[in-house]
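Fold this sequence, please.
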Amino acid sequence: MAFLPDGTMFFTEKCNGLSVRTPSGTVNRLLGMKDSKDYDTKADDLFCDGQAGMNGVAVDPDFAKNRFIYVYSASSMAQPQTNHVIRFVVNDDMTKLSGRNDIVNDIPYKTAPSDHPFGASGAHNGGRIRFSPGDGFLYVTTGDTHNGEVPQSPTRIGGKVLRIDRDGKPAPGNNAPQGFDPRIFTYGHRNPQGIAFRPGSNQPFTAENGPWHTDEVTALKAGGNSGWDPRSNVNGRGDCPDKYCGYSPNQMGAMDPKERSKFMPMTDLKTYPKAMKPAWTNEGMSQGMSSATFLSGKQWKDWNGKMVVSYMGIGIHGTPVGNRLDVLDISPDGQSAKRTKVSLPMPAGRFRSVVQAPDGNLYVATDEGEIIKMTPS
């Protein structure tokens, strides 16, 4: 979801496409994907597969002048398929798109199944895109695609957070290490599906899935390494299935999450002592952290300035199902956090996206196909 100041809401559906809800409540279906129906415009190269599809959406900070809207989607325009960030122009009455411009076309996509949990094609696809209200640049989260080489790779832009301008060019100040793609802002990520900017400082934070353990919220620093390195035969490990140690050891069986974490840490501070340390690790569990937003405004009382994170609720090997919303009080230095669980006014679902809209309320999207408006009380 992405909002305009008047409450207009753009939203994506992973296997359908991009739509917009106007302040009057009218929903216009703008951009359909392959095999979708009843959209004004259709792009047959855009497709969904597993976790991939039409994921993130963002509106340009200068939308009132340029009418630019952006989406992140899997595309078959080239072979092998990749993920694209695509810019469009929206007409004045919010019924049509034009001027397609693929500003990024080389984000990795997992093209074939592998021998892993959730190992189908399309896995670990990332896909959240948001403009920073501070610097005005577009931040793009990308997944590691179950490829052990990708997160620490200087040239492959999976397992990264990109920071780019509206034309897809590197933003100044990314501080990527020498030899890295200059679009890279941070690297060494697993599957960040959320990014949010702290009110006041506008520091970016990611919300990221963990591997049977350790969902993470992390304060990002330009050029920083998040410390995920699932390669085989490195850091004291031997061979792993399909050269990816991300679920090892005993990837298909029950095991103490703390023991898993010792073998395959989410943030490997032993190997990368200067890696960005997470503020929150979900008490060492993985329950499918998916999105994040900061609450802002006096109407939120004690929650003003705090982060809301959402969970899809993965429960496996004894891990409790965690489809919930948490409020995190993150320390000023971004190195620790205290959690409050939200008492939900509706049945829990697979919470996919959380966004605070210009009206000050929290909007929550679910995999079950609902967008829920939550107001402070």
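The chain has a mean pLDDT of 96. The two ends are 23 Å apart (CA to CA).
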